[in-house]
Structure formats: structure tokens, C-alpha cells
């Protein structure tokens, strides 16, 4: 079974969801080009209500790095409002 994050990545990169691995060394590396990178960032932002900073977009070049950003942002949301606890208004 795959999680929602893996399903989004698989859909955008057009690979089987089972092939998406966040941990290095657990499967073949998944590579993508700059266009797919922007599509992937947009799909993750839409699916999880997060916002990547320009720095995060430049440096998140692996599935593990993307997952870490999504996990960090979704974990800091306040349950009642859906906004981030850092006050930046990310949803």
C-alpha cells in the first residue's frame, strides 16, 4: 500500500507508486527534469496545502527532501485553523 505523498509523486513522475521511495538505497533512484520538478512542487502544494519557499524549491532534489518539507509543514499546522504555527499563514 502507498501513502498519499507517494501517490502524488508517482502520478506526476508517471512511475508506479511502489517505485517511490523516500529512503535512499531502498530502490532505484527516481530522476526528473526541471519541468517535472515544477509540476511536482505544484502538485504537492495543492495536495497538502503547503508552500515551498524558493530556497526549498532549489534544494529539494530528492523524494526524501520533498517528503521532509511536506512533513515539516503539515506537522506545524494548528488543528483549529489549519494555519502554520509559525504564523506565516501556510495551509
Automatic annotation (TrEMBL):
Q: Compositional bias (Polar residues) spans?
A: 73-83
SUPFAM superfamilies in the record: ACP-like (SSF47336)
Pfam families recorded for this chain? PP-binding
Q: Where is this region: Disordered?
A: 71-91
Q: Which residues form the Carrier domain?
A: 7-66
Q: Which domain of life is it from?
A: Bacteria
Protein name (Swiss-Prot/TrEMBL): Carrier domain-containing protein
**Where does this protein come from, organism-wise?**
Rugosimonospora africana
Amino acid at each position: 500500500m502507498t501513502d498519499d505523498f507517494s501517490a502524488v509523486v508517482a502520478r506526476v513522475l508517471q512511475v508506479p507508486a511502489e517505485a517511490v521511495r523516500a529512503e535512499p538505497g531502498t530502490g532505484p533512484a527516481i530522476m526528473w527534469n526541471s519541468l517535472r520538478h515544477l509540476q511536482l512542487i505544484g502538485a504537492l502544494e495543492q495536495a497538502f496545502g503547503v508552500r515551498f519557499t524558493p530556497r526549498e524549491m532549489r534544494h529539494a532534489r530528492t523524494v526524501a527532501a520533498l517528503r521532509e518539507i511536506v512533513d515539516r509543514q503539515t506537522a506545524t499546522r494548528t488543528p483549529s485553523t489549519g494555519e502554520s504555527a509559525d504564523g506565516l499563514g501556510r495551509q
